Amino acid sequence: MQVLIWFLVLLAALAALAQAYVFFMQMLRSDPGNERMQEIAGFVREGANAYLTQQYRIVAYFFIVIFALLSLLSYVFQAQSVWVPFAFVTGGFFSGLAGWIGMKTATAASSRTSAGARISLNQGLQVAFRSGAVMGLTVVGLGLLDITIWFAVLRWVFQLNLVDVTVTMLCFGMGASCQALFARVGGGIFTKAADVGADLVGKVEQGIPEDDPRNPASIADNVGDNVGDVAGMGADLYESYCGSLLATAALGVAAFSSPTLAAAAHLDVPTAQFYALFLPLALAAAGIVLSIAGVYMVRTEEGATQKNLLAALGRGINFSTGMVALAAILLSMWLMPKVDGAVYWYVPGVALSIFTGLAAGWLIGKWTEYSTSDEFEPTKKLADQALTGPATIIIGGIADGMMSVWAPVLVIAVATLVAFGAANGWRFSDPDYFSLGLYGVGIAAVGMLSTLGITLATDAYGPIADNAGGNAEMSGLEAIVRERTDALDSLGNTTAATGKGFAIGSAALTALALLAAYVEEVRIGFERWGDNLAHVIDSDQPYRVSSGFIIYKTVEDEQEHVHGFLSLPGDRRDKRVVEAWDKLDFSRGPVKIPVDMIQAETTDGHLHLNMVGRDIELLPIHTATLIDFTNYYEANLMNPKVLGGLFVGAMATFVFCALTMKAVGRAAKGMVEEVRRQFREKPGIMDGSELPDYASPVEISTKAAQWEMVLPSVLGLATPIVIGFLLGVGGVLGLLVGTLTTGFCLAIFMANSGGAWDNAKKYIEAGAHGGKGSDAHKAAVVGDTVGDPFKDTSGPSLNILIKLMSMVSVVGAGFVVRYSLLALGVF
């Protein structure tokens, strides 16, 4: 049965990749357009290839350094599994590969979308959307393929237990997160530097249309759409997809490692763990099949409005979502261990958790659509503010973005509570069922991302349509083609904003699951610490290793077993033991605990340690719950270490945004100066007697993006380790909560502000308030320029920062447990 389930999941992953290949070949066989259209597409393709080649070269250097550091932690400090460095590399490789495939498809599809739009609006939509589906299906296919292969290798080749398998697999998410951050930050800086230069000088100063071939930055602008919005988004959601699956699998195995919970499900521990591990993977597999079916349902009629186009996309997404909801019921009944009190009419409660994730994703997408689409009042009213100049539209956009935060925050808050309660039978205060509730939160994130194959297609479709419009403009095609590509592009702006909202929502739920998984890594860190000390301690004698960590070695059949125990802070501070306890100096290594302080006894084959005089039994590491660990580290708001981490996490999101926005500003400055120089030194550009130099702006953006992406990325990588070393596990928990809550709100604000500014400009360009060239249009272009780094650089990158900090914390948990100042007794 186990092999059958694994094989079905693997088959779904291969089906996704096969279908992606079919769509890719269909796109290549479609009409690439005339010679000029192919030439323009070739310029964009060469620029995107040159950028990604350079970016991957720099990222490779970073990966070599991080691989060496992880190897040091694994093989020298023995603070984590020896498989972690290799899992890290494969995660980064597949993330980068997904982005590269998406970029190759998008650059080949732009001229073909323009050629399709010459025939009909539906033909253009089909080419663009199915090319976007290549990105969506590649992400889910590669993600699930990587996970299934790693599971088979670790479980069946090297015979690791399920806890070690899931904890090790979770670490490859760090590789995906690192690659995603580099792709998002670097691509975002590239695309927005080019966009700002093209808009400010071309539209505002020279008064030429968007994507006019006379604009030297027009090719760089189109290249940026591919490296930022396609390759960057693909890497981002690959990381979310894998992170949610791996975190949920780890939480499921951890939850059913409790004999109490397994008994409540009437299963033995290994069987319950396996089913809980594979339920999210099976759900993802079903989502792949249903996403493919949904893609085939997307079509529209000629003369469609944006509402008609949105309905066409919605038809495919709604079908996939509804069928995944049905699949969730069937898969939960088949695979989920049926825990007493958490089953409703023969259906396990996690099915409701999955519904909750699906509903949350749908609601956030709809709210984002309402907040940013020019079909609705908020964006139309924002466009009205352009009549009084750039200042008022900027103020209005910032206010609209801030106001838009409330709905997604409430949706995520309610979804978290419902998913938690549904999974564990609404036992919010029962420590034995707490981990099952966290599993419900994790699987809600999986539910939200289960239809990623089609939802990412709607997102990747946007920049393809945008490039198609640019191709049509620069190729001098008939006006009706530009009208059709503009309709597709306007829809693309909304679907991109919806995709960003979807990515932010999934990041929040994934980060919550990773927060719980972090505590499980802390447990593994303690166990590994104890095992590494086996050779320096005597058997049948308790040793104090840190402030509250005690180990005890037994020998059975010449096999050594090290048992770890926790002494909670309240027990250690008791006036009857505190003085003697503090005299046990562990700064030079484990110190023996006198028998008059700790007594050992074995009952029913289980070792128990009791603190003499307190009648308190020490807490075994292997049965400690998440609540036990938070009590051990005093992870509450009265702990200054937790508060310190909380403030640093909140601060890090603002510093990160500042770094990325300043980077865009500096890169855009160079771009503006270059475009102005070309117009000044080549006056014939405007009358067509001279050709602009397209290569120089591409080179400027490429160099700027490579250097500017380094510091924000280092911030995300280094902060959890530094805070962990200084403030311990409690400080890291505070850091992750601060980053999650502040980053979530800030990301929604920035994405929605930028999307609203962009569509307000499009609304005016469609004829409102005087149309193109009017003073209102110029004010809207300034607002859109301000919003560019909001929605395409800083905002989307925050999703990855949130998850990257969580992933780095998970990978570094063993180091923090053992080598933080708290563990060393310094602070």
From TrEMBL:
GO molecular function: diphosphate hydrolysis-driven proton transmembrane transporter activity; inorganic diphosphate phosphatase activity; magnesium ion binding; potassium ion binding
Organism: Blastopirellula marina DSM 3645
Entry cofactors: Mg(2+)
Domain of life: Bacteria
Protein name per UniProt: Putative K(+)-stimulated pyrophosphate-energized sodium pump
Principal localisation: membrane
Gene: hppA
Protein's UniProt keywords contain Metal-binding: no
Coiled coil stretches, renumbered: none
Known function: Sodium pump that utilizes the energy of pyrophosphate hydrolysis as the driving force for Na(+) movement across the membrane.
First-level EC class: translocase
Any one cellular-component term (Gene Ontology): plasma membrane
Record entry for activity regulation: Requires K(+) for maximal activity.
Site (Determinant of potassium dependence): A496
Catalytic activity as recorded in UniProt: Na(+)(in) + diphosphate + H2O = Na(+)(out) + 2 phosphate + H(+)
Keywords per UniProt: Cell membrane, Ion transport, Magnesium, Membrane, Potassium, Sodium, Sodium transport, Translocase, Transmembrane, Transmembrane helix, Transport
Pfam families: H_PPase
